User: Fold Heterokaryon incompatibility protein-domain-containing protein from Neurospora hispaniola.
Amino acid sequence: MRLINAHTLEIEYFTGTSIPKYAILSHTWVAKEATFQKWTNIWTRLTHKHRPGFHKILATCRQARRDGLDYVWVDTVCIDKSSSAELSEAINSMYTWYEKATICYVYLSDVAASGTKANDDTFDSLRKSRWFTRGWTLQELIAPEHVQFFTKDWEVLGAKKALAVLISTITGIDAACLKKENRLRDYSIAQRMTWAAKRETTRVEDLAYCLLGIFGINMPLLYGEGPKAFMRLQEEIIKVSDDHSILAFETNLSDNTLFAHHPSAFVKGGCIHPNYGRHLTLPFSMTNAGLAMTTPLIQTLSPYWVLAVFNCVEVDTENNMQRSQICLPLFGKDNQFMRARIPISLISRKIDASYTLNPTENLGAAAGVLDLTPRSETSYYISYFGRVYSAYGREIDVALKGFQVYPQPDHGFMITFPRGMAGYRLHTALPRQDLRDDISFFIPTSRYVRSSDSPQREEDMQISSGLVVFKNDSLSDDDPSKCVGIYLAFVATTSSIASDTTTSTTTLNTTTSTGGTQDLGWACKVSPTREFYNHRTNAKQVLAMANEEALLGNCPRYHRCENTIVSARTRFQTPKGEPCKDTVMVEIVFDAEELVRERDAEERDFE
Assistant:
């Protein structure tokens, strides 16, 4: 590497172990920067010393001498950019060079000190500095252990570690990372992508090249490839990382359906963390047929779309650090899929939410293991839109058209099966027209209204509910589990429930037609299977009884009856309101006893 002698201002060349201690400069480029050719010309160096590009290099050398260092590195003059080979080597080495520097000087040409001491006005200017918006300065901030910030007049603003909290609020980078308390690999791919989401580079390709060190990647530079550089970066990352969060970007915000086209597509990435479970993540790789993956798949009623379960979680820092597993909706058939934009491109499936359980139930390990995620994994391909659509276009068109519901309802249930349907099939629904089995949505339109007649309640209540019934033809007619009914309901109140009453339904706010707000809760329950046995009980009567229980707050969001579990814990909004604006994900398991045995065995193995 080339270094500037801080005393003679001459450029010297060093290799390997002969490299001396050096200071390194981080700055934003301006017009008429110094270059390698201009700096090595003594006459040019002398005549241009008052120009901003030359002056900051001289100031860097002066500061290095004060700090007892004999050499400095500055990107504008220590790289001969006329050599493409040298430029490529320098860019691939740059993170390491900043990391190994004794100290990094950050020169903020747009920040002026107020008086003799940095104050609130100075720090306000710091927040607005252009330096925090540039792509290359990301690695220049993270890589060095010791970083000193300077104003445009080379007055000290403070050290990175002392300003870590402020810098964290500006950049979104964890303060522990800035202080070198955590390693880069402790952060998910998605988290690191969000650090670059709002940054810019002069050349499109540099948005990928400036991230090489952040992800520990080396790859050749191909200026002129445009946005393909960022795609190529992601392909290189998956060669060395099994972190699924590289796929946890919003498809609706990307021009591509396989990889993100820009770091800004990782809007939720800052909260997405690696999920270190008890099982190793199986490898995945890029092939000429697409991305070859092996993960659990959550089934739906539709034969054309599933949810891929990733090995990363979204952590809610404002709600007891609760975790939600990242799931990616996929459209396709025969294990050949493409990313879905409808109903939503990513779903955060809650796995740490607390449930209201029936206290008389003895669920064994399942009482403490609330995650219904399947352990079995499926191999499949995620491919580009054109490849999948050319094979299954007609079927996919029909499936996608099902999401177009007019007028758009406010809320609905998305029905899923984390462990498959275990021999069950859809039998019927009440009302039947509310079940959209082509898209696996139940959108209740049946209204059950009850005016307030209790002194403990101050509101009227309205229930939108229904039943979805499943049947297992392999079971004998005498088996009470032959039919299973799932009760689903939204409970709306026109005002708050009095403080001395409770309910086990989950609530959210929704806007009424008059512009006010009302509390909207959702609930689910397994209707006793014997009530459907040989049609001894009318389904309408079952629905009416369930509605009464919901009004009394006796209907939970997680319920087990015999061998069936239903859970409704995840709520999300669809970006286009298709097929409804608010959606609650319903998970149905038909083999609860087997689930308990598996979880108990896992606990024993772990002990």
Remarks:
- The longest strand covers residues 305-316.
- Residues 355-369, 496-517 have pLDDT under 50 and may be disordered.
- The CA atoms of residues 23 and 72 lie 5 Å apart.
